[in-house]
Each structure stands twice: as structure tokens, then as C-alpha cells.
Specification:
heterodimer, A: 285 residues, alpha+beta, 3 helices, globular, B: 170 residues, mainly alpha, Arp2/3 complex 21 kDa subunit ARPC3, 0% strand
């Protein structure tokens, strides 16, 4: 049995060690320690199997509830099927026309960013941070600071990797910041017009909105403006959709224009993402 | 408590938090099943065991993000320890007392989290966070506390019955 005084001293030492550990790991690190890497791999593989099982259960429940709906849809689809042959002819004609027009305009096939597709195997279990663990890591070519996108827009960036996992920090996290440009569609203009440059900051998961800060008191920002990465921060390539301005406010000293931005990505429903492994390659001009 | 049961409960709590809690989210607020399991553990097994349970489960939670290592370990360890201390003064079978204890533990853990994270420079907005995170989470965790407590108590009773059977065996 440990004497009370010695136990108290040990507890105090433990608390102090944890505080020191916290301050040492408060900044982003290039590499994980071997022990951390092993623990993350093990934890992620356990969560991966359970999340796969949970996904199957969810799908089974969906299948059962969708059975009745499927019968009704079946009747509608049968009817539509009868109309399919003439539509197929129409589609072929349209395809051919599209190809001709593309050639005429000199359009090339869109060249997407080189990406790696990954599945989300775990989400932050708390109500403070906003991150997810992916089922692919350094072995798949994923590195720290690579942008993470979904078909809707920018989701976040990779903050650390182990051999088979990667942790991504979502835009919603308070540690997240993105340099952006604010664009507006103007009637008559060929392309959206750049109105200002700013920074989008995360505010935590519960609000599910982002904070836009523009350091120019005369910036003309309106609800409905599109917020797109500017590429100025060096981490994210330009041209990725971040969201749309919802509400504009000016600060008490009239120095900074702030706005609420509705993210393009629905963070509640992310199950798969694309990690941009070569942001320099860039989107098509 | 035997080590295999201790480990199994920690893994189960983590998995439930990672896989089940997101599906139970109300207005994006997830119940803190790990914290509630730690609370129940402290109430049923005493302060030292509660502290140990909180420390290990919190550390596992910390490892997932890999930054601010120790913040959840410290908050959960303290919560587990204090739950064990409070055990002697609480009538645990009362539903209302369990709800209130769950809510109070949730507020305590979140305030400690804010204090520690604030010291590292993490951007927090104490007043807004109180209204948006801490109080709603306390309400939700309070309501979930009796369920988790009863589940852990069931394991505790099963374990005690098993120990007695082994002791009486010739």
C-alpha cells in the first residue's frame, strides 16, 4: 500500500507531466512518435471495423424501410423504361453535338487535381474540435497540409499522417484558417467579379458556420457572395469553393468587415473525401 | 476490477463514442459517453479507479487528434476521481441525483477543458461557448447519465457475482 503523502506527490507529478505534455504538443508536429503512431494505427483499425459494422447495420435498416418505397418506385420506373429507347437516341444526338461544340470552342477535357480517395473511419468524439480520421495515410502518398475536398468544395487539410491513416482538420475547427477571395456574379460580366481578399476562420463544430474577416473597412461584401480559396496562404490552391456569405457585420471600430459564411460542404454527412496530393498541378485554366 | 474488464470497458466506451455518439447528436452536440462511463466508474469503483479509468480513456481520445496531448486525459481523470470522492455523499439510486451529477460533471469537465486549452492559446469564446456548448451538453449528458450508470452497474454486479462464485468454489 502506497502511503497517502507519496500517493499525493505521485498524483501531482502526473498532473504536472500531463500539463507539460500538453504544452509540448500544442503546436502541429512534423512527425508522430513511434508510440503514438502505433496507438493511432491500432485505435483506427478498431474504429474502422466498428464503423464498417455500424454502416452495414444502418444500411440494413435503410433497406428495410426502403422496401415499401421501392415497390412504388418500381411501378414508376417500369413506366419510364418504356420511354427509354427514344430518349437514348436523343442522348446520343446530344453527346455528338456536345463533342462538336467542345471542339469548336477549343475546350480541353477538364484536368482535375491529382487526388487520393479516402473513407472517413472516425470523427472527433468531442464537442470542441472538428476533425476526422481517414483510412489512408502516408503509404497512399498523403502528407501533412494537403488540402481535402469533396465534390461540394473544400473540407479541410491533413494535419498528420501515420502509415495507414491520416487526420484531417475540418474548416469548422477553431485552429483552421484559409486565405480566400470573395466573388460576386454580376449581370453582364463574363466571370464572377473579385470584391475582396480575406481570411475564413473556423468557429467550432456546433455552429457549423465559418467566420470571414476582411481587413479593409470599405470592402463591399454582400450576402450571396461566393467565397473561394485565393491560394495566398500557400496551403490551399486557388479556386476551391469554401462557401457563401450569409450575413455581413462591421466591427465597432469600422476597421474590419466580418461575415458569416455558410460552408459549401455538409460536414455532418462526410463519409468519403478526396485528398489533393499535388495542389501545385492546379485546376484547369 | 480485473484488467481485462477494465480494458474492455475502455475500448467499448471509445468505440461507442466514435461510432454511436455521432448518430445520437442533437443540434450537432454529441453526448460524452466516455465521460459518463468515467463518472459511473468512479461512482461504482471509487476515486482511484475512477481516476485511472479517466486517465487511460482520455489519453486514447487525445491520441486520435495528436495535438494538445493530455487535455482529455486530465479532464477525465479529475472527473473520475471526483466522482469517486462524491460517491460516499451521494444517493446514487435516485434518478434526479444521477441526472444532476451527470450535468455537473459535464460542466466541470468542459470548464477544465476551457481553462487548459485557453492556457495553450486555443481560440475560445467563454460566454458564447457556455451557451452553445457547455450548458446544452450538460443537459444532454445529464439525461444520458442514468442509462450509462445502470449499464456500468450491471457489469459491476456481474463481476461481483462471478468473484463470489469463484471464491465459494472448492
Amino acid at each position: 500500500m502506497i502511503p497517502v503523502q507519496r500517493r499525493r506527490l505521485l498524483s501531482l507529478l502526473l498532473v504536472l507531466s500531463i500539463v507539460v505534455l500538453m504544452s509540448l504538443t500544442a503546436r502541429e508536429r512534423e512527425r508522430l512518435t513511434w508510440l503514438e503512431e502505433q496507438a493511432v494505427e491500432l485505435l483506427s483499425s478498431v474504429q474502422r471495423s466498428f464503423s464498417l459494422a455500424a454502416g452495414r447495420v444502418e444500411r440494413a435498416v435503410d433497406d428495410l424501410s426502403g422496401l415499401a418505397r421501392a415497390q412504388a418506385e418500381n411501378a414508376v420506373l417500369r413506366h419510364r423504361l418504356e420511354l427509354l429507347p427514344p430518349l437514348e437516341h436523343q442522348l446520343q444526338d446530344l453527346r455528338a453535338e456536345n463533342n462538336r461544340l467542345r471542339q469548336l470552342l477549343g475546350f480541353s477535357e477538364t484536368r482535375p487535381f491529382p487526388t487520393v480517395a479516402a473513407r472517413v473511419v472516425a470523427r472527433n468524439p468531442d464537442n470542441w474540435f472538428s476533425y476526422a480520421v481517414l483510412d489512408k495515410g502516408a503509404r497512399a502518398g498523403i502528407e501533412r497540409n494537403m488540402p481535402v475536398v469533396t465534390p461540394e468544395g473544400l473540407a479541410g487539410r491533413v494535419v498528420r499522417t501515420s502509415a495507414n491513416t491520416a487526420t484531417i482538420l475540418f474548416l469548422l475547427d477553431r485552429d483552421s484558417g484559409v486565405a480566400v477571395g470573395i466573388y460576386r456574379s454580376v449581370p453582364g460580366a463574363e466571370a464572377p467579379v473579385l470584391k475582396a481578399f480575406g481570411v475564413v476562420l473556423g468557429q467550432g463544430e456546433h455552429g457549423a458556420v465559418l467566420r470571414l474577416r476582411v481587413f479593409a473597412h470599405d470592402a463591399q461584401i454582400e450576402p450571396g457572395d461566393r467565397v473561394v480559396t485565393s491560394g495566398l496562404g500557400g496551403v490551399f490552391p486557388p479556386g476551391l469553393l469554401v462557401g457563401e456569405v450569409r450575413q455581413v457585420e462591421t466591427d465597432a471600430y469600422d476597421l474590419v468587415v466580418e461575415a458569416e459564411v455558410m460552408p459549401a460542404v455538409d460536414f455532418d454527412r462526410i463519409t468519403e473525401v478526396l485528398v489533393v496530393i499535388d495542389p501545385v498541378a492546379g485546376p484547369p485554366p | 476490477m480485473r484488467a481485462p474488464i477494465f480494458i474492455a470497458m475502455i475500448v467499448l466506451a471509445q468505440v461507442m463514442q466514435g461510432v454511436v455518439a455521432p448518430h445520437l447528436a442533437v443540434a450537432r452536440l454529441k453526448p460524452d459517453l466516455v465521460l459518463l462511463t468515467t463518472l459511473a466508474y468512479g461512482l461504482l469503483y471509487g476515486p482511484a479507479a475512477g481516476g485511472r479509468f479517466g486517465l487511460v480513456s482520455g489519453l486514447l481520445q487525445d491520441l486520435l487528434l495528436g495535438r494538445y496531448l493530455g487535455v482529455f486525459a486530465l479532464t477525465r481523470m479529475t472527473a473520475g476521481y471526483l466522482a469517486g470522492v462524491a460517491e460516499r455523499r451521494l444517493y446514487r439510486e435516485s434518478l434526479l441525483i444521477l441526472i444532476a451529477t451527470g450535468a455537473a460533471t459535464s460542466i466541470f469537465a468542459d470548464l477544465l477543458f476551457m481553462l487548459l486549452m485557453g492556457a495553450t492559446g486555443y481560440p475560445l469564446d467563454p460566454l458564447a461557448d457556455m451557451g452553445r456548448v457547455i450548458l446544452p451538453a450538460a443537459l444532454y449528458n445529464g439525461l444520458m447519465a442514468p442509462l450509462i450508470y445502470r449499464a456500468v452497474r450491471r457489469i459491476r454486479r456481474w463481476e461481483l457475482a462471478r468473484t463470489r462464485t469463484e471464491e465459494t468454489r472448492p
